[in-house]
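Milestone M4 deliverable, item 7.
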Amino acid sequence: MKEISPKRILVPVNGNPTDEEMVSLACTIARRTKAEIHVIYIIEVKRTLPLDADLPPEAERGEMVLEQAERVAGGWEAQIQADLLQARDVGPTIVDEARERDADLILLGITYKKRFGEFDLGRTAPFVLKHAPCRVWICRQATE
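Output delivered:
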C-alpha cells in the first residue's frame, strides 16, 4: 500500500466543534511529512450583495475562528497560513482553493445534523467530495 505523504494540507474552518480536531490532525500529519498547512474561513456572501461587501460581524467571527486555529497550531509548534475569504458558495471555493494551492489533502470537519429525521451531510461536503482535485478526509462530530 502506498504511503500517504501530503505536502500541502487545506483545512476549511467555520467555527464548528470539529475545527480544533481538524487543525490538530493537520499538525500531526505535517509534523511527519513536513507539509504546509493552509487554514481558510469562508464568508458566504448573499447574492443580493456585492461579492466584496463589507461584512464586519462575519469578518470578526472569521478572524476569531482563524485566531483559534492559530492557537491550536501553536500548541503543536506548527506554522499555518490562515486566510479569510469571501465567496458566493463555500463548496466551490474550497475546491478552487485546493486547486490554487495545489493541495494534496483537504481535511473537512462536519457536524452531526439531521434533516427530516435522517443524517444529512449538507451541501458542502458532497460538493467537495465530488469535485476536489485531491484526497478528502471528512471527520464527523460524534453524536451526543
